[in-house]
Structures are given as C-alpha cells and as structure tokens.
Specification:
The structure holds two protein chains of two kinds. Chain A is of the alpha+beta class. Chain A has three domains: about 110 residues, Orthogonal Bundle (Butyryl-Coa Dehydrogenase, subunit A, domain 1); about 100 residues, Butyryl-CoA Dehydrogenase, subunit A, domain 2; about 160 residues, Butyryl-CoA Dehydrogenase, subunit A, domain 3 (Up-down Bundle). Chain A has twelve helices and seven strands. In chain A, a hairpin with a 2-residue loop joins strand 2 and strand 3. In chain A, helix 1 runs parallel beside helix 3, helix 4 packs antiparallel against helix 6 and helix 6 packs parallel to helix 9. The N and C termini of chain A lie far apart (about 55 Å). Chain B is mainly α. Chain B has one domain: Orthogonal Bundle (Non-ribosomal Peptide Synthetase Peptidyl Carrier Protein, Chain A), CATH 1.10.1200. Helix content of chain B is about 50%, strand content about 0%. Chain B has three helices and no strands. In chain B, helix 1 crosses helix 2 and helix 1 packs across helix 3. The longest helix of chain B has 15 residues. Chain B is globular, with a radius of gyration of 11 Å. The two termini of chain B are about 15 Å apart. The relative contact order of chain B is 0.20. The chains are: A alpha+beta, B mainly alpha. At the A-B interface, helix 6 of A face helix 2 of B.
C-alpha cells in the first residue's frame, strides 16, 4: 500500500498577515512604553512565538514555516509601522536564522534548527568587538578547541536583547594562531553561555532593542561552529539579508509617518472643503519618495531571491555593491521622509502628546545610518568599485 | 621575474599576510593566512598592473585569489599563456 507523507505547507501570505495582526493588536499598544522604559518588547515576542513565527525562515522539513524572505520583509514593514524596536529585534533574529539555515549544515546545527522551531528560540548576535574599531570582518577573540569542545571569551560592545535571547551567534578567529580576518561563527547557548553585562542602553532611539555591552564567555561542542568561514557567510547571507530586513523595518517607520501625514492633510481638507490644504503638495512629494523606497526594497528582494541559490552571484562584486547601496539609500530615505512628514503635520508632529506625534519615528530613524555606519559602507563600496567591471 | 615570482612579489607588497609569503606553499589558503577581502582587491589591481591585463567579471570572485596556484591559473588564463 502506498504511504502518503503529509507535508505541511504554509499558506503563502500567512506569515506576513499574522505578523501584521500582531503588530496592530500587540506591538502597537505597547510601543510607547517599550520606548519610554527602554525595555524589551516581551509581549510582541511572546505573541510571535505563540504562532511559531520565529521559525518562519526555517525550512518546513526542519519544523519551520518555510516562508520566503519576501514574506518576512512584508511582516517587518507591518511591525515597523507599529513598534520599530520590536521590528528590529525580530529582524536581527531572522538574520541569524537565515545564516544558520544556509551555513549550518552539520547534524548538530540541523538538530538545533529543529529545536529552535519547536521551542521558538530567539537568536541574538555578537559580531562587534571592543578594540576592532567597529570592523566586523576582524576579530581579536579566538576559539580554543580541545577534545571536540570549543571555548571563547569576547568583549562585545553590543549584544542586542542578549538577556532575552536563547542563544547568541558569535564571531571569533578560527584558532589562537589565526589572523584577525580568518573568522568563524559559533552558536553559543546555555548552559555553556555566560553573559556579564557592561553598562546600560539609554539611547535616542530603538530603545527596546536593549543593545548593551557584555563580556561573553562560552563553551560547547565544536560542531556548533558554522560550516563556512564567516567571510563567506557575511558576503552571501548575513550582509544582504541584514540590509534587506533592516530596510524593511525602516520602511515601516517611513510608512507610518506618511500615513499620519496623509491623515493630517485629509483632516485639514475636511475643515475647508474646496481649498487645497497648504501641506497637500508636500504630501504629494513625500509620497513619491515613499514609493521609491517601497519599490527599492521590493526590487532588492527580487534581486536577492534571483541570486539565492547561486553562490557565485551572491559573492559577486556587483551584488555586494547593490546590497550596500540599498542600506545607504534606505537609511537616508527614512530620515528624509520622517522629516518631511514632520513639516506636513507641523507642531502636531513636533509635540509629544498628539495623535500625529513623530518624535519616536524621528529618534528611531536617525539610528538607521549609524548601525553599521554609512561611511563605513560607502568606503567598502568605494573599494569594490575599483574593480567592478559592469559587464 | 617569472610569473610565480611576480605573483609572490605582489602578495608581499599588497596581500597584508600574517606570515612571510615565501613560507607559503603554492596551494596555501591566502585568506587563511590573513589576506582580507580589501587586501585581495589591492592584490588584484597590482596583478593587473604587473601583467597588463584586466580580470574578467566572472573571475572576480574569492576563489580566484584563494591561493598562489589559483592566482597563477587566473593570470595565465587572462594573459592567454
């Protein structure tokens, strides 16, 4: 008798729709408190976990949602509209998941993805290090591997939401005698993970990401080292996925600002029918820029999905330059759009106590150009353009 | 200078390797020896200058520059020797 295996298929659009619903129902009411208190958006994360959404990018055969990056991006835009801190936490988690899915091929890491899907683990990341001047492509700390077990200690200036994460992906030199650029990523998790907090996170925006510094000490099975060198993981997956998902969060912030500006102008129009409100033209202008932003994120997603299975294409200079351009554009556009919307709504946006207040949007948007500084990204592009052929 | 000598000279000048280039075998992993992706760009530019050619788009990938052997293959392919 033939046995039919039932393969669960996630309905297209399900992940984005559920993330959007949680954004409205859970993230929105908590957003002001998350921002004011600078606290982790625990209710949003609990709601996402309850629906299995932290494993959205994990393949179905490993127990995940099997969703496309496109869908997660749409969900992050929705979440970014309501609470940018929540959206950024979720984006950072999915970036780590994407790296594990593509570059964690050994049995231990495959099993971990199954476990992550089952328990809805939240992943954090420790790529920066005290003493490297913000260059994530070099490490000072090194893995020490003895009898199949690794040990590492890292001074991390930032590990976002580390206290609420179930594991941290950590970059380090491959071994004590490796040069700074010969890096690996290792999955560090309890009970072999110890975090000692250094300082506080009291920042202008993205206050709910709780991006404090830590001294990280970890030990574990050496199989927890991802199978490809960090340089390859960064070029092919971490960098493009990060730029795509961050841009989605920033697009969410910009989209909410434009929504508020439109409501404001419509309110003015209702008060004086027959007269075009003073800010209506500015609204039309900012809507053009917003559409550029939407289309840029969408076309970059398409470019990524088209190159997805082609390692050479993902590693090509043209692709890297394009993904860096996306980050620089998106992080610039979000500030431009919020500022324009501020002019449209005027004092109603400047004040902190009106339905049109854009204070949080503005504070969050400023962070976009700084998290991996645009100057550093432009310097990388400048270097790559020395050899781009344009064929 | 032979092709190999020129490649080794370029690596010594621009590879920013963690070890002296003459300690490396032809098949040694240059990225493992500390060459960063930035340094590999400079190596590439210097090779193009030394051998008077341009790498084609399809050769502009990490694997072309991963070892002295790989660079030699790339250079000989582009110079048609």
């Amino acid at each position: 008798m033939a046995v039919h295996q039932v393969i669960p298929v996630t309905r297209a659009g399900h992940v984005a729709a559920r993330m959007a619903a949680i954004a409205d129902e859970v993230a929105a009411p908590a957003a002001a408190d998350v921002d004011e208190s600078g606290r982790f958006p625990s209710e949003t994360l609990a709601a996402l976990k309850a629906e299995g959404l932290l494993a959205a990018l994990v393949p179905v055969e490993l127990g995940g949602g099997g969703a496309s990056l496109d869908e997660v991006s749409a969900g992050l835009v929705a979440l970014g509209r309501r609470c940018a801190s929540s959206a950024m936490v979720v984006a950072m988690h999915h970036i780590q998941v994407a790296c594990l899915v593509r570059h964690g091929r050994n049995d231990l890491l495959r099993d971990y993805l199954r476990e992550l899907s089952h328990h809805q683990y939240l992943l954090a990341s420790a790529t920066t290090e005290v003493g490297t001047g913000g260059d994530v492509r070099s490490s000072i700390c090194a893995l020490e591997v003895v009898d199949g077990r690794f040990r590492v200690q890292k001074q991390a200036p930032v590990i976002s939401y580390a206290d609420d994460a179930d594991a941290v992906l950590v970059t380090a030199r491959r071994a004590a005698d490796s040069p700074e650029s010969d890096q690996v990523i290792v999955l560090c998790r309890p009970p072999g993970l110890e975090l000692e907090q250094v300082g506080e996170w009291n920042a202008l925006g993205f206050r709910g990401t709780c991006s404090t510094g830590f001294v990280l000490r970890a030990t574990g099975d050496a199989e927890a080292v991802l199978d490809d060198p960090y340089g390859d993981i960064s070029t092919r997956t971490m960098l493009p996925v990060a730029h795509l998902l961050w841009s989605s969060v920033w697009l969410g912030i910009a989209t909410d600002a434009v929504d508020l500006a439109r409501k404001f102008v419509q309110g003015e129009a209702r008060r004086k029918p027959g007269t075009l409100p003073a800010a209506a033209l500015r609204l039309a202008e900012v809507t053009v820029v917003h559409q550029q932003f939407v289309d840029m994120v969408q076309s970059s997603l398409s470019r990524y999905e088209a190159a997805d299975s082609d390692a050479d294409r993902l590693a090509s200079i043209g692709f890297g330059v394009g993904m860096n351009a996306l980050k620089v554009s998106a992080s610039t556009l979000v500030v431009d759009i919020v500022r324009e919307c501020m002019l449209i709504c005027g004092l109603a946006a400047y004040r902190l106590d009106t339905p049109f207040s854009l204070g949080r949007h503005l504070r969050d948007s400023i962070g976009a150009a700084l998290m991996v500084n645009n100057d550093r990204i432009m310097a990388n592009n400048a270097q790559m353009l020395l050899v781009l052929r344009g064929e | 200078m032979t092709v190999d000598e020129t490649i080794r000279q370029v690596l010594a000048d621009h590879g920013r390797l963690a070890v002296p280039v003459d300690t490396l075998a032809d098949d040694a992993d240059l990225f493992g020896a500390g060459m960063t992706s930035h340094a590999s760009v400079n190596v590439m530019l210097a090779l193009e200058d030394a051998f008077e050619f341009e790498f084609s788009e399809k050769m502009l990938k990490k694997s072309t520059f991963e070892s002295i052997e790989a660079i030699r293959t790339g250079v000989l392919e582009m110079t048609g020797e």
